[in-house]
Amino acid sequence: MPADLLNAGTVRLTHGAASADILLFGATVLSAVVGADKRELLFLSRASALDGSAAVRGGIPVVFPLFGELADVPEGAVGRDDVKDAGRHGFARTQTWTLERSDDSDSSASVTLVLDTQKRDDVLKRYPFPCLLRYTVTLAADSLSCKLAVQNTGSKTMHFHALLHNYLNVPVAGAQISGLNSSFRDKVSGREEAAASGSAPLTMDGAETDRVYADRDTVEARSAAGRGVKLSRSADGFAQTVLWNPGEKGAGMKDMHKEGETEFVCVEPGYVAELKALAAGEEWVAEQTLSPL
């Protein structure tokens, strides 16, 4: 079987020697082990709750319909009122999704999870725009792909952010990030920064990092030892890339195990520079693929 329930809330997806665990709460991918050397692509804090009491610290949380805080959306921005009650990083990562189907082929195995907000009164109070989220996780021998589809099932245009918050299993000290060559918004300093000249990798030093890049191409994150994870994405959908690590602030996170903040780099494809407008009856789709380096 390509997909098995480990318990009431966790699905294990397998394909040959590769495996992935997906928590139905938040549709959060917790683990992805791929490649001939059975490489774990993702970081998961040992202090994170996995019982549905809080969003998961690690793996791949699904961020929707608001990235960050409402204060991060400029006053007067189109659609700002739509997400004013959505809460930090939205509700998708703290709702229990439904397993819709599983599929298996010679080249991969997949599961599809759905979240229908029309059936969630608590969600509609926070975000009064009925929509159907469909999330397909596909496991191959040497990669993990995640496709998010958002369908507007209501009668009005809706506005949203969407992002996959990848916690990559790449130690941050000395990590080399390639493919982020555009201008960016530095959320730590509050400044807009120009694109760097050339295409040399960015070296992480363990300090707090929170940047929103305009890049939508392939990004590679390598540890100082040279191993890492490659992020690629579909041509449409995710238009920006977020680079994040909490630095010393990680020590104050109750769901982060001791020095856990040193063990990962977050490279996150998203549509977050502005709120995406989606007309009634329309669908928006975005996809990413993670593979070992």
UniProtKB/TrEMBL annotation:
One Gene Ontology biological process: carbohydrate metabolic process
Active site: H165, E268
Pfam families documented for this protein: Aldose_epim
Catalytic activity: alpha-D-glucose 6-phosphate = beta-D-glucose 6-phosphate
EC numbers for this chain: 5.1.3.15
Keywords: Isomerase
Recorded family membership: Belongs to the glucose-6-phosphate 1-epimerase family.
Chain's role: Catalyzes the interconversion between the alpha and beta anomers from at least three hexose 6-phosphate sugars (Glc6P, Gal6P, and Man6P).
Protein name: Glucose-6-phosphate 1-epimerase
Organism from which the protein derives: Tilletiopsis washingtonensis
Lineage: Eukaryota, Fungi, Dikarya, Basidiomycota, Ustilaginomycotina
